[in-house]
Amino acid sequence: MTDDPQARPPASSPCLAADLAPADVSDLLGWRRAERARLRAARDALRVTERQTIGTAIFRHLAGLVPGMLPPGGVFSAYWPIKGEPDLRPLMFTLHEAGFRIALPVVETRFAPLVFRHWTPETRMERGDWNIPVPPADSLRLIPDVALAPLVGWDDAAFRLGYGGGYFDRTLAALTPAPLAIGVGFQAARLDTICPQPHDIPLDLIVTEAGVQASRRPR
User: Fold this and answer.
1) Parallel, antiparallel, or unpaired: how do β-strands 205-208 and 160-161 relate?
2) Among 181, 191, 197, 154, which Cα is nearest to 11's?
3) pTM reported for the whole predicted model
4) What's the rounded Cα separation, in Å, for the pair 184 and 86?
5) Residue 17, pLDDT above cutoff 70
């Protein structure tokens, strides 16, 4: 990940050697790969019923938060769940029915910012990058007011450990105005720190099944 954020503040400071064991600091990328593998294995080990219970709790928290964050007819960017992520498609339907516009992120160009295509319950999806269902190429492009970001890991400073491609950081850096960004993940995926680097962009909120766990929004 080599993106250079402009629209969002970068990490307050790089992770210092004193914050992690020397072996971890000597290979930050290796440490992150190991943490991703560990957290994803733990997520995959959950029973279907456990994952459904977590997804329902996150849905309820977001359903109470997101409508008040959106302007009338505003754009909400969700995601199509993969790899054991919380399934928040019911939230897409709920907000659509409430009159908000729904967008889904799409990789149109590798290592470029994501684009956001309009989705409705009638949209005929096609296979995109990594075989993820996405709205077709002729769908209207939208700029989100609020965007969800699925998490592999997270910390109390609202930094996100993703899948390692840098797409979400790159997208937040490119969007003007930047959307309100909400990280969504499992409570058990909390880390003491992701060891943020200058290209890592903190999110506005982290929401898990336990509710809002980290927030950079003014109170």
Assistant:
1) unpaired
2) 197
3) 0.86
4) 8
5) no
Q: Which of 27, 81, 34, 28 is nearest to 200 (CA)?
A: 28
3-class state of residue 161 by DSSP: strand
pLDDT at 14: 41
Residue 131 gets which letter from DSSP?
A: G
192 Cβ contact partners less than 8 Å away, ≥ 6 residues apart: 155
Distance of CA 59 to the CA centre of its chain: 14
Handedness of CA 170, 210, 186, 79 (dihedral sign): negative
What span, in angstroms and rounded, lies between the C-alpha atoms of 43 and 116?
Answer: 27
Determine the Cα–Cα distance for residues 197 and 128; give it in Å rounded to an integer: 29
Q: Do the beta carbons of residue 35 and residue 191 sit within 8 Å?
A: yes
Q: Output Rg (C-alpha) for the chain, integer angstroms.
A: 17
- Measured between alpha carbons, how far is 206 from 17 in angstroms, rounded to an integer? 26
- Burial-class residue 125 by CB neighbours within 10 Å (0-12, 13-18, 19+): middle
Q: What span, in angstroms and rounded, lies between the C-alpha atoms of 187 and 57?
A: 11
Query: Residue written as tokens 């190991």?
Result: 34
Question: With the CA atoms of 200, 76, 40 and 197 taken in that order, what torsion angle do they form, in degrees rounded to the nearest 10?
Answer: 0
Q: From CA 209, how far away is CA 54, in angstroms rounded? A: 5
Q: Tell me the pLDDT tens digit for each residue of 89-116.
A: 999 999 999 999 999 999 999 889 999 9
Q: Do residues 205 and 214 lie in contact, with contact meaning Cβ atoms separated by under 8 Å?
A: yes
Read off the DSSP letter of residue 189: G
Q: Which two tokens stand for residue 161?
A: 């450990």
